[in-house]
């Protein structure tokens, strides 16, 4: 095929050269230039010279900032150095710094970034494009969504902003730009396409519903903007899939619709994600076997396995065995897509669920999402004394606490949760935050008051039952 292609090209060239340059054609017009002549001609205007992203960058880049946080951490010191004047202490303080990006979304200084950029930071600073630095306060942090909302005080100045495009009309193949501060070298723009939408199962956040892009994203880009060709932010750059820790063409961005909802919640006065909407439903994915049992031609939707008494779902008539197929008309393929669709609403919003009933009938159910119930109250207590839980901080497990910590709200009222473990007996026994205390010496534990009563009556031998990551653990301890 290659010799044939060359031959055809030569033939065209000879035919074009058979008429002297400038000889009028049969229509009395100048002859068309030869291919060789056309290749040598200079472009007649700027549009013929280049295709440029510069107009998009000029619109979007001024609103993208650098965010860094500092915290003091205690670091163990090798005892070897004590022999050489290093001191007798076994630890020393050092400054740890986290570097990332952020986006100004309101002209009065409201900024979004990733929670992991500022998490644990004792001092958070924002650097604008003109190199001015401002201290920032945290309006709200949502670790489960990995979104944080900051505020800086620039006085009466109106800062440049980047619009959050929450229309969710991006398509695979759309051109995008990633803007941020990779490796701390300064603001950098990279280009690519939308490689995939609604990406789940990558283990980055609990929400897990990402835009995937091949635009280069590197450490320091976290919290920066993924921008469409209108110069609007369609996502917040969050993570990469890479063995080296550097860009491999697989980057992930949190959709702007979720970022916008967190911003609105923060501006409304919430300090944490406790006001996230909740349906009061427990669900599971639809496997091939379940789909066959339900008479489906393929796995689709999520199956309701439990309904919280007097929760939003129960009040709307959702029943165990219902199959949820869509939320407000948007298809639901799995639990991640259901959670995402719900989280783009706020508590109090009406949500329409398209449901396939257990017997095959289709129905649209409208419910009003609410915040998870906060009772019983947290009643946080630090356990002291000579017992297995000494040094542990415990709380009552309400649906609100469970949802906030990413636990099963249906486990509420069925144990006492350990939220923190300090030096003490509990730490020595290997107890961990997230452990759910179920029994002490055979006595069921549902509240912190019951736990303390059981501890006051027990000893020196303790039989304890707890749940860790879904597994029941039993132990006997002598103190």
From TrEMBL:
Superkingdom assignment: Bacteria
Predominant location category: periplasm
Pfam families xrefs: PDZ_2, PDZ_6, Trypsin_2
Record GO cellular component, one term: periplasmic space
Keyword terms, alphabetized: Hydrolase, Periplasm, Protease, Repeat, Serine protease, Signal
Signal peptide range: 1-21
Entry GO MF terms: serine-type endopeptidase activity
PANTHER family, per the entry: PEPTIDASE S12, PROTEASE DO-LIKE 8, CHLOROPLASTIC
Protein name: Do family serine endopeptidase
């Amino acid at each position: 095929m290659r010799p044939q292609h060359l031959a055809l090209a030569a033939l065209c060239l000879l035919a074009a050269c058979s008429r002297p340059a400038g000889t009028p054609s049969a229509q009395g017009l100048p002859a068309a230039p030869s291919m060789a002549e056309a290749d040598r001609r200079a472009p007649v205007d700027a549009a013929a010279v280049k295709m440029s992203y510069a107009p998009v960058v000029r619109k979007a880049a001024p609103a993208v900032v650098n965010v860094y946080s500092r915290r003091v951490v205690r670091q163990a010191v090798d005892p070897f150095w004590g022999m050489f004047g290093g001191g007798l202490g076994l630890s020393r303080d050092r400054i740890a710094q986290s570097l990332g990006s952020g986006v100004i979304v309101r002209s009065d200084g409201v900024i979004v970034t990733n929670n992991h950029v500022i998490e644990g930071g004792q001092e958070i600073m924002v650097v604008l494009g003109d190199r001015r630095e401002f201290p920032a306060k945290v309006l709200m942090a949502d670790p489960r969504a990995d979104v944080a909302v900051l505020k800086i005080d620039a006085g009466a100045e109106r800062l440049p902003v980047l619009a959050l495009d929450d229309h969710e009309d991006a398509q695979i193949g759309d051109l995008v730009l990633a803007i941020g501060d990779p490796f701390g070298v300064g603001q950098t723009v990279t280009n690519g396409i939308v490689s995939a939408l609604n990406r789940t199962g990558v283990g980055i956040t609990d929400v897990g519903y990402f835009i995937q892009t091949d635009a280069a994203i590197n450490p320091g880009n976290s919290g920066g903007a993924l921008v469409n060709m209108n110069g609007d932010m369609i996502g917040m750059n969050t993570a990469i899939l890479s063995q080296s820790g550097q860009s491999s063409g697989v980057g992930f961005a949190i959709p702007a619709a979720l970022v916008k909802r967190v911003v609105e919640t923060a501006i409304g006065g919430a300090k944490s994600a406790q006001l996230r909407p909740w349906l009061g439903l427990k669900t599971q994915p639809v496997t091939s076997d379940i789909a066959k049992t339900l008479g489906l031609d393929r796995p689709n939707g999520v199956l309701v396995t439990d309904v919280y008494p007097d929760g939003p779902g129960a009040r709307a008539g959702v029943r165990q065995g219902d199959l949820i197929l869509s939320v407000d008309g948007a298809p639901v393929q799995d639990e991640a897509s259901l959670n995402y669709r719900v989280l783009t609403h706020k508590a109090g919003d009406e949500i329409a669920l398209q449901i396939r009933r257990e017997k095959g009938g289709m129905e649209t159910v409208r419910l009003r999402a609410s915040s998870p119930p906060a009772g019983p109250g947290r009643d946080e207590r630090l356990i002291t004394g000579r017992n297995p839980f000494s040094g542990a901080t415990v709380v009552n497990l309400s649906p609100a606490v469970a949802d906030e910590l990413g636990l099963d709200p249906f486990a509420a009222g069925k144990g006492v949760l350990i939220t923190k473990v300090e030096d003490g007996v509990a730490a020595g026994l290997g107890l961990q935050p997230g452990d759910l205390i179920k029994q002490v010496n055979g006595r069921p534990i549902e509240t912190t008051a019951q736990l303390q009563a059981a501890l006051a009556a027990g000893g020196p031998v303790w039989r304890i039952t707890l749940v860790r990551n879904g597994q029941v653990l039993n132990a006997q301890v002598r103190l």
